[in-house]
Write a structure and sequence with these properties.
It contains five helices and 14 strands. The chain is mainly beta. The strands form two sheets. Strands 2, 4, 5, 6, 7, 10, 11, 12 and 13 form a nine-stranded mixed β-sheet that branches.
Length: 218
């Protein structure tokens, strides 16, 4: 599961980190990215990468109602290649969703405790994503692929978003990539350079969006 994340780095840093050729979105720091919001995504076309915004929550092209997207913020990597909601996007419309951290909630006595997971050097990274166009572009939307948690995240939650190492990004965006190669990329991130710590329940409300979301809990 990945239901909230952060993207706080400047747009020019993203452009450098992800070798962007075209930037169609100017981003503001977001400490509490939530489902159904417009989010940054990197798509490839004609060998070039561009940054644009998509609605978080994939709306299949065949859907009658775009509100279905609110239930499709994540796609399980084990089933996405064949599931009707995602298989077309898996074949033809893959994207990178940049982030610099994400939240998971751990069940504890007294309620769920949010934890923040990020790179120990603060650098941005990319989730494996899928995107879709509904009604000839009336709604452009995306979903984040998930997989089994690695050892670090597994102490908090059983699943985690697929984080693509830098060396796998080209393969994920390659329009000619074979299914078997793509599936092989959807594995738990090793986690040696990740760290996590508990944060305040302030982050629980998507209305709260500032540095307090990522401050270590008292």
């Amino acid at each position: 599961m990945c239901g909230r994340y952060t993207l706080t780095v400047p747009t020019d840093r993203l452009a450098a980190e992800f070798d962007l050729d075209d930037v169609r979105a100017e981003l503001s720091p977001n400490f509490n990215v939530a489902p159904t919001q417009s989010v940054a995504a990197i798509v490839a076309e004609d060998g070039k990468r561009r940054l644009e915004t998509l609605r978080w929550g994939l709306v299949p092209s065949w859907a009658d109602d775009p509100e279905i997207g609110s239930r499709m913020i994540n796609a399980r990597s084990e089933t996405a290649p064949e599931k009707p909601s995602f298989r077309s996007a898996f074949r033809r419309r893959r994207c990178l969703i940049p982030a610099d951290g994400f939240y998971e909630w751990k069940r504890e006595e007294g309620g769920k405790q949010p934890f923040y997971i990020h790179m120990n050097d603060g650098r941005p990274f990319a989730f494996a994503g899928l995107w879709e166009s509904w009604h000839d572009g009336e709604v452009l939307s995306c979903t984040i692929l998930t997989t089994q948690a690695n050892e670090l995240v597994g102490e908090v939650h059983g699943r985690m978003p697929v984080i693509l190492p830098a060396e796998d990004r080209d393969a994920w965006l390659d329009p000619d990539a074979e299914r078997e190669e793509l599936v092989s990329l959807l594995r738990p991130y090793p986690g040696d350079d990740l760290e996590t710590f508990p944060v305040s329940r302030f982050v629980n409300s998507p209305r709260n969006n500032d540095e307090r979301c990522v401050e270590p809990a008292a």
